[in-house]
Write a structure and sequence with these properties.
Layout lengths: L9 H8 L6 E4 L6 H7 L6 E6 L2 H10 L6 E5 L5 H7 L5 E7 L4 H5 L24 H7 L2 H12 L4 H14 L5 H11 L2 H5 L6 H12 L1 H15 E11 L2 H15 L19 E3 L9 H6 L7 E7 L1
Parallel strand pairs: 1-2, 1-4, 2-3, 4-5
Antiparallel strand pairs: 5-7, 6-7
Helix pairs in contact: 7-8, 7-11, 8-9, 12-13
Length: about 300
């Protein structure tokens, strides 16, 4: 299957990075190379480091960006971007992009095991390495499964879903996406099954986040990105679900916060100064036209900060 992915908030993201022709940039989640190409097209003597942990994405990005001599495609997780940047002679950069979540290719390619719409091996590994979702559902305790589904899926029915998974695997291992989807469907109340959207959506999200350590990598990646920015450099992050967005929003707010002394102090004694400022106070959401053209963009939110 050809690696295809429609870059979300493309124009808004490229414009917010304020790409300089001679600047240095990092796309920490290159995917199929859509946003990367948008950056590369604005460069003359500048350089771009395009990173992705998915080997399929790396091959696709390398092909799409092959005509841009200033672009280097690197396989790795964006949380390790500092090491990758320094290895490529980029100790400081002018802009960094993180487009979080799962690509259209990963969702639509059944063999990757991300989707409950196709019957496929229960995988969900973005890097195609390490522990899979199948390993988790067949080895973790009921309590551990419930905690993951509640924490990362924010599903109130986490306990009953975990109980249903454990009961099902006592009869036979849970090995495919549709197996798991049916188990979840049969484990939630009838009123939940009548609601819009598949009842397994939150469980799949939770397992995917756990398999890939997404929130830990996000926290590490945000710190690495901010440390790489030179003054005036911009960090643009596109999120697709509330856990990601809260993490990004809080971290950027911390960078933008100055003095924290009580208001009745006559002078500042904490010495804390803001290290960044927000480009958009509430972030940017897709236009109605974009959502109509690409429904998967509906939940996207772009947040950008400028390092002081």
């Amino acid at each position: 299957m050809k690696f295809t992915h429609t870059p979300v908030l493309f124009r808004e993201t490229i414009e917010s990075l304020n790409v300089r022709p001679d600047g240095l940039y990092i796309d920490g989640t290159a995917g199929g190379g859509g946003h990367s190409r948008g950056i590369a097209e604005k460069l003359t003597t500048g350089r771009l480091l395009a990173i992705d942990q998915d080997p399929d994405a790396v091959r696709a990005a390398a092909e799409r960006l092959k005509d841009f001599p200033g672009v280097t495609v690197h396989r790795g997780n964006f949380s390790d971007m500092r090491q990758a940047a320094e290895a490529n002679g980029m100790p400081q950069v002018d802009g960094i992009l993180l487009d979080l979540g799962v690509s259209s290719y990963q969702f639509d390619n059944p063999e990757r095991g991300f989707s409950y719409h196709h019957d496929a091996p229960l995988d969900m590994r973005m890097s195609r390495e390490g522990i899979s979702a199948k390993d988790l559902v067949n080895t973790l305790s009921e309590r551990e499964l419930a905690e993951i589904i509640f924490r990362y899926g924010e599903d109130r029915n986490a306990r009953s879903i975990a109980r249903g998974i454990v009961r099902a695997r006592e009869k036979a291992p849970v090995e495919t996406t549709l197996q798991l989807a049916e188990i979840v469907k049969g484990s939630v109340p009838a009123r939940v099954r009548r609601e819009a959207g598949h009842p397994a959506r939150k469980t799949f999200q939770a397992l995917r986040i756990q398999v890939n350590g997404e929130l830990d990598r996000l926290s590490e990646g945000l710190d690495a990105a901010f440390s790489l920015l030179r003054p005036g450099g911009r960090l643009a992050v596109i999120t697709f679900q509330s856990l990601e967005d809260r993490t990004v929003k809080k971290r950027m707010a911390d960078w933008c916060t100055g003095c924290t002394c009580p208001p009745d102090f006559p002078v500042c004694v904490c010495g804390k100064k803001p290290r960044a400022e927000l480009l958009f106070r509430k972030g940017v959401s897709p236009s109605e036209a974009e959502v109509k053209e690409n429904p998967r963009s509906r939940s996207a939110r772009l947040r950008v900060c400028v390092k002081l």
